[in-house]
């Protein structure tokens, strides 16, 4: 029952009286619809942002999940190719790629790579996307690239253990996830470089640091 | 009435939210893209401060992007005049490349996969290129055979060119790169 219905009809113009409730009801409906649409758009914005941020946390088809079993024996392993294997997207056919999957829950991991005549790059891909660290063979000291991957807590422990006043030569890389991949990429300058490139890529050692 | 309104709000919010998120990460996002002449690049895709859209796009497939200090990947799907690259045309890739430890240039489909062509060449590395007297680059990309550095194309349909620069000092400031520092993709003629 609206207020208009309860009014004395004689106080209103005779023709306008029956149309008012219909109009005000329509205006109310339009206002309600506009408000609901606005609320829906705000909700859509929230759903959009949450979805985009949540996908990396729940994704099970990323590289870290696809190659989780490779290189757990302390040596980098070449990416498997052929039918039924994970389909690596955007890969350069002129590179040879080997990976070491890491899990820092058991302790920090030491990565050692020997360099050769071909361009070599090492990169650290955390689980859920993002490259934490990348280094190339130009940073090698006497033909060896070496660094230790650790979590923030393990890094704090190591800092506490360091002797006072003594410089530490170890290159420490902090990964913000416990799991991820160490990727060794070697560029083949000519197709005949494949054997050498594969030897370089699989020559990367990744074992527990201590 | 209230239930209907609530259902409408939830349906609109969830539907539009999921659909727009799906659309935004279905391909490489526009956020963080650097456009240098015909070449596009996502310099932050290989760094720690990767933007959320690129991150979501990358984890939906098996991707191992080049690290920021490791190299830079540049993708072109248009020529210098802004027209889409097409297998029915002949292209001339000329000019120079920035200082790198090594680079490769390749032809791929729109998903980044190499075409299965009768000839086993989908790209060149810097060591394989035959250069002219001035040391400049000159690659002829066409479906039919060409003299010199010939990059075979599929006989028709769209394709992409991918230039990968390994161990290059420019990856950290790719946004400031000028088109002249990268190879030019000129269209010669079309069938």
Automatic annotation (TrEMBL), chain A:
Annotated organism of origin: Bosea caraganae
Keyword Membrane appears in the UniProt entry: yes
Keywords: Membrane, Transmembrane, Transmembrane helix
Transmembrane regions listed in the UniProt entry: 33-55
Protein name: DUF1254 domain-containing protein
TrEMBL record, chain B:
Transmembrane feature ranges: none
Gene3D superfamilies named in the record: Domain of unknown function DUF1214, C-terminal domain
Boundaries of every DUF1214 domain copy: 71-168
Pfam families attached to this UniProt entry: DUF1214
PANTHER family hit by this protein: BLL3101 PROTEIN
UniProt-recorded name of the protein: DUF1214 domain-containing protein
